[in-house]
Each structure stands twice: as structure tokens, then as C-alpha cells.
Specification:
This is Metallophosphoesterase. There is one protein chain. This protein is α/β, with parallel strands linked by helices. The protein has one domain (5-72, 138-249): Metallo-dependent phosphatases (Purple Acid Phosphatase, chain A, domain 2). The chain has helices spanning 16-33, 52-65, 75-85, 90-102, 105-111, 121-127, 130-137, 166-171, 212-215, and strands at 5-9, 37-41, 70-71, 142-144, 148-151, 186-189, 200-201, 205-207, 219-223, 229-235, 238-245, 248-249. It has a 6-stranded mixed β-sheet. It has a 6-stranded mixed β-sheet with strand order 4-5-6-8-7-12, with no helix packed on it. Helix 1 (16-33) runs parallel beside helix 2 (52-65), helix 3 runs antiparallel to helix 4 (90-102) and helix 4 (90-102) packs across helix 5. The longest helix is centred in the N-terminal third of the chain and has 18 residues, at 16-33.
């Protein structure tokens, strides 16, 4: 049996159309190469884009159907379960307001058919699909491969992987993005939209958040068992098409 390949997908942010096209291209590529594969979503499935509910359905179905696949929890994905599971009283209502109006949670709620201006914590608890809340609750913090570490935002320099804080894994930008320190393995991450709008390779990390919700470019990296990489990206001119692209070195 062939060793399993991994396809890591960057921040989706409600672009279910691009996600569907990318997953179909991945499946076609794997079939053509005769390989077994899994999908790792790097987080931020929801918010900003128009079809968060559909994106969540696609992710949930993929995790059910493609063995060994994972969702890594992104900072946007965390907010609904943070509100319900980690806060109480006024803090819940404050966090809900922050999510809706500052993190573009309004787009997520509208995709579920809710009015963001008339949505309560109780609505989130009782009307938001339980399957989707459970999906977020079961998301992992990171995925470690033989040559790479897959994470949503990045790692704090100088701290062992097992001791990284959940906050840094979901939220960090600096000092991670400017660090030249080795993390032991190359870190593949999303969260921070690349300056070039393309996947970017630095000395110790690879960024694959290409701003799908506004650029039309949803990116994935094909990680071979031996650590070789290839990059796939949806075509902003033809959203149903997926290209093999060259990552930028920064």
C-alpha cells in the first residue's frame, strides 16, 4: 500500500465554491497519480465570504469520507464555541457582538439564514446546527508530519511544539512571521494573507492563505510522504478551474 499523501488547504472564509473546485481537483490529481491521500484544513472555514454554511457542510463531509483528514481550529472558527463553552453572562454577549461586527461573523450568520442584528447567544446555542458546532469542538490544534508542522496561524519562536499556547496557534503574526529561527520542521500555515497573493516560502515556514474570500484564490499544498511539495490554486479568472502554481520565495 502506498504511503498517504497530505493536501493542506488554506483559509476558506466562506468560499464554498472555491473549496468544492479545489477538492475535486485534488481527488482528480490523486486518482491520476494513484495515491492515497488525506485533507488537512488549516482553519478559518467561516466568516467574511458568503457561503460559510456550505463550506462547513463540505468540510464535515470531507472529514467523514476521506480517512485521516483533520480540521485545525482557526481563530474565526473558535469564536462560536468560545462564546458557548468558555464564557458566561455579559462576556458572552460582548463576544457575540465582537464576532458579528468585527470579525465578519455577520456573513456567517446570513449564510445560515439568520439576521445578524437580531441574533442572540441563545439563538447560537439552540438554532445553529449542532453538527457544525460539534465539528468545531472536535477540531485539532495542529498536525505534525515527518517533515512539516501544519497549523492555523503559526508558532511562537523558542517554545517546543507541545508547549505552544492555543492563542498563538490560532492568532500569532509577529514574531512568527519575521522569525528566521528553525522550528525543527517547516511550518505550513494560513491566517496571514500573503503579500503576493500567492503561496510564499520563507526559510522556516510556508504561508498558504491567499485571501480566497476577496481574491478568488484558494490554495493548497500537496505534501508527499518524503516531504516534496506542489502547490494548487483556484483560478480567479475561472473560479471552477484549479492550476498547479509556483510558490514565491520571500
Amino acid at each position: 500500500m502506498h504511503e498517504q499523501h497530505t493536501f493542506a488547504i488554506g483559509d476558506i472564509h466562506g468560499r464554498a465554491d472555491l473549496l468544492q473546485a479545489l477538492l475535486e481537483a485534488i481527488d482528480k490529481r490523486a486518482a491520476g497519480m494513484g495515491i492515497s491521500y488525506r485533507i488537512v484544513f488549516l482553519g478559518d472555514v467561516i466568516d467574511r465570504g458568503p457561503r460559510s454554511r456550505d463550506a462547513m457542510d463540505i468540510v464535515a463531509n470531507t472529514l467523514d469520507q476521506v480517512s485521516g483528514s483533520h480540521l485545525i481550529l482557526g481563530n474565526h472558527d473558535w469564536f462560536p464555541i468560545r462564546i458557548l463553552d468558555e464564557l458566561a453572562g455579559d462576556k458572552q454577549h460582548m463576544a457575540l457582538t465582537h464576532w458579528i461586527y468585527n470579525l465578519c461573523g455577520s456573513a456567517t450568520l446570513m449564510s445560515y439564514g439568520f439576521d445578524p442584528d437580531d441574533f442572540s447567544v441563545e439563538d447560537l446555542r439552540t438554532k445553529f446546527p449542532a453538527r457544525h458546532l460539534d465539528l468545531l469542538r472536535s477540531a485539532v490544534r495542529y498536525v505534525e508530519l515527518p517533515h512539516h508542522i501544519l497549523v492555523h496561524a503559526g508558532l511562537a519562536p523558542g517554545i517546543p511544539l507541545a508547549e505552544q499556547s492555543r492563542h498563538d496557534l490560532m492568532w500569532i503574526r509577529e514574531p512568527f512571521l519575521l522569525s528566521t529561527q528553525s522550528f525543527g520542521k517547516t511550518v505550513i500555515h494560513g491566517h496571514s494573507v500573503t503579500a503576493s497573493g500567492q503561496c510564499e516560502i520563507a526559510t522556516n515556514r510556508i504561508g498558504i492563505d491567499t485571501g480566497a474570500y476577496c481574491t478568488g484564490r484558494l490554495s493548497a499544498v500537496h505534501i508527499h510522504p518524503d516531504g516534496q511539495l506542489a502547490f494548487l490554486q483556484t483560478d480567479p479568472q475561472k473560479p471552477g478551474d484549479v492550476m498547479i502554481v509556483t510558490a514565491h520565495r520571500v
